[in-house]
Amino acid sequence: MDMLTFSEKNGELTAKISGELDHFLASDVRGRIDDMMARKMPSALILDISGVTFMDSSGLGLIMGRYTACKSRGASFRLHGADSRAMKILELAGLSGVIQTGSTAKGGV
Amino acid sequence: MKKRPVNEMKLTLPALPENEAVARGCVSQFVSRADPTVTELADIRCAVSEAVTNSVVHAYGNTPGLIYINARLYEDGRLTVQITDRGCGIPDVALAMTPLYTTDSGGERSGMGFAIMQSFTDGLKVSSRVGGGTRVFMEKYLKRQP
Ligand SMILES: Nc1ncnc2c1ncn2[C@@H]1O[C@H](COP(=O)(O)OP(=O)(O)O)[C@@H](O)[C@H]1O
Ligand SMILES: [Mg+2]
Predict the structure, then answer these.
(1) Does residue B2 lie in a domain region?
(2) What is the interface pTM, i.e. ipTM, of the complex?
(3) Which of helix, strand or coil describes residue B75?
């Protein structure tokens, strides 16, 4: 099963990640998200982690990396579907107020 | 007087990314026998994942190496997990443990690994020697179920 699926709506790209978002999975999906961003040039990237069952600081690194990449190319970035565990990790890093979060993948299908 | 553990697990794994899930899965299974709360189990899984990932990512570079995991459960609900590698070591442990500090230049590491281990456990000790390796010792007190 593919742990990464893409969808597009109104010029916004949603990347939905499922499974355990550790260093192993983050290294796999990172390049594929960046390739898709370069190809589609969306106005926004929505990272949907509602299907993520585990996340550690490598997942956080993936989020921070995509946030920075979006900023530098002038696209906006939103994080959808973060559960209380993911929010706790974002808070520890001081990012809960910086990164725009939402509970459902409104930008998706 | 030091109490003896009521259960113990020793696990040696090659420092490969796919073993991050194996390590936290095994420790999680080991701890499950002691009836932890959902939050306690999630905390332990995450803390173990951080230490093991560090040994995979930072310790050995591109050379093969091993990760040694030793978990112990005590009668009073204390869990200890020791995660050791024989990799490159950390020159300044206090600096490495600073939140957001990372030696990775690729922009893909958050530098929050030690901060998470600290926050998700009840005790964390890191000892390291350059060229000798790194040992992370963590403990957590499981609230005993009535
Ligand atoms: N097992 C290890 N062997 C060598 N260096 C390590 C080890 N664990 C951590 N480090 C060093 O400590 C730094 C901080 O670790 P951490 O807080 O987990 O952040 P990150 O892994 O995101 O860099 C790492 O960037 C690395 O330089
Ligand atoms: Mg780390």
Answers:
(1) no
(2) 0.94
(3) coil
Packing angle of the helix pair B19-32, B38-54 (nearest 10 deg): 150
Among B82, B83, B88, B90, which is best to mutate for testing ligand 1, by the most ligand atoms less than 8 A from CB?
A: B90
Q: Does pTM surpass 0.90? A: yes
Q: Which of B24, B45, B54, B86 is catalytic?
A: B54
Is residue B15 lining ligand 1, measured as CB closer than 6 Å? no
CATH 3.40.50.300 assigned to domain A4-101? The reply is no
- CA A88, A1, B20, B95 dihedral sign is negative
Determine which one of B20, B24, B40, B50 is catalytic. B50
pLDDT digits (tens, 9 = 90+) for B8-23: 999 999 999 999 999 9
d(C-alpha B94, C-alpha A83), whole Å: 31
Q: Let me know if residue B32 belongs to a domain.
A: yes
